Amino acid sequence: MRFEPLTETEALSVHDAALQILEEVGLLLPPSTSKPVATRLRDAGLAISADGRLRLPRAMVGAALRHAPRRVVLGARDARRHATLDGTATYVTTDGCGSKTLDPKTGLRRPAILADIAASARLADALPGFHVYWMMVSAEDVPLQARVGREYLTALRSTTKHVQMIDVSRPEEARLLVDMARVLRETGVTAEAPVSMLISVVSPLRLDPGGLESALAFAAAGLPIVSCSMPISGVTSPATAPGTLLLAHAEILGFAALIQTLHPGAPVIYCSFPAFGDPRSGITNYRDPRRFWAAAAATRLGQRSGLPCFTSGELASLLARPDMLCFGGLLEVSTVLSFEQMVIDHELLRDWTLSAAPQPITPDTLALDVIRAVGPGGHFLTQRHTARHIREFVVPRFADADRPVEPGSAAPPVASSQDQARSEALRLIATHEVPPLPSAADAALERLVLEGAPTHATAR
After folding, report:
1. How far apart are CA 353 and CA 187, in angstroms?
2. Please, are residues 150 and 139 in contact by the beta-carbon 8 Å criterion?
3. What is the dihedral of CA 424, 429, 430, 434, to 10 degrees?
């Protein structure tokens, strides 16, 4: 299957328009931005207007982005599970960042707690189709000031895959994660970046002061930053799919260019999560089918920009071959964690991956000799070729539990697909073993979390 969401001419048109936005309209730098950061931006030759606009000349954007590496490695405790973003493979992350959990025992929605992070990270570790654990929920039972460090350590203890954070809004939280990453490297847990962080521009065109400072702290330490935009068409972006695509592209490029200007060579990932507003309420509507085109088109723009690309959009985006794809485990507009949904979505991911994969055309797969041997009116059930290849056929377990029933017979009583998926999720959470962190590393990380972020100078 060949799928081209944007032609080269269309991609150039969107990119040129994004550069016009950055040069003529600019990004808003709120007054709450720290003076040291604002001073660094001015010292880098960027002009900040009286109303806080940071206008980025197109030549400056192009020069800055040329410093960004195309290859970014997301390190894992298990070196076999590193995610190397270099355009040769697509790595799938769990969804994030919800606030509630569908309790697997009661079936009721409740505030998410730290134990949900441990359980979801363990489940993601057991499901091979998820390659990166993106922080799925925010632990409401942990004080806000201590939440980020405690969440990261809990996930780290529960999976050997890479952990990506999403809710780092204060620079002291970022500096704590930097120190934790340093401990993991110094104790030999991993030589690669053990944590990454997603920071979003606030659509339309507003920088988040705490997020910007957090990103600069990560950049100074060589840790990956996801430069993200999450526009909602008709609400925080134009009411067209191309207009939403354009705004997101401008926001991502602008933020990435600022990071590269102050920290050339810092690992930055292009991330577009476009959505559409429900015309009846204005809330996010993931059912709008244009979201899939927008996500795939964003993948094309990210690839042209020379950055690793992270997006959503399920099958449509898989066909466009992003470096990272977000999908799995959250319900109700990505706000409610469901363990059974993680299992169901994992099966769907397998199906989509097979759908997007090109099938090899060889003498064996064409099976000309087999067709010749069977001839008109025959069947292929007794052919050795069938016996060999039928092992590749997909049999759904959770996404679709329907089974064919012989005429005249009663359907055997079976649990619903949701019940089966819930049982499987609970089984894996209870039985899957995750190797513990080395004791020295675990103790040092626990001390850091308990002490909070050490006092540092503002990110250099």
Report:
1. 36
2. yes
3. 130
Task: Identify whether the C-beta of residue 61 lies closer than 8 Å to the C-beta of residue 253.
Answer: yes
Distance in angstroms between the alpha carbons of the first and the last residue of the chain = 48
Distance in angstroms (rounded) separating the CA atoms of residues 85 and 308 = 6
Q: In Å, how far from its chain's centre is CA 128?
A: 16
- CB-based contacts of 365: which residues, under 8 Å, 6+ apart? 359
| Per-residue model confidence as pLDDT tens digits over 50-101 | 999 999 999 999 999 999 999 999 999 999 999 999 999 999 999 998 999 9
Q: Which of 161, 174, 114, 116 is nearest to 134 (CA)?
A: 161
The CB density around residue 217, as the number of other CB atoms within 10 Å, is 26
Rounded Cα distance between 66 and 242, Å, is: 26
Cα 419 to Cα 291: distance, rounded to the nearest angstrom: 30
Alpha-carbon distance values, 67 to 31, 220, 224, 322 (Å): 29, 14, 14, 21
Global pTM reads 0.92
What gap in Å lies between CA 94 and CA 76, rounded to an integer?
Answer: 15
Contact 191, 219 (CB under 8 A): no
- Report the C-alpha gap between 330 and 100 in whole angstroms: 9
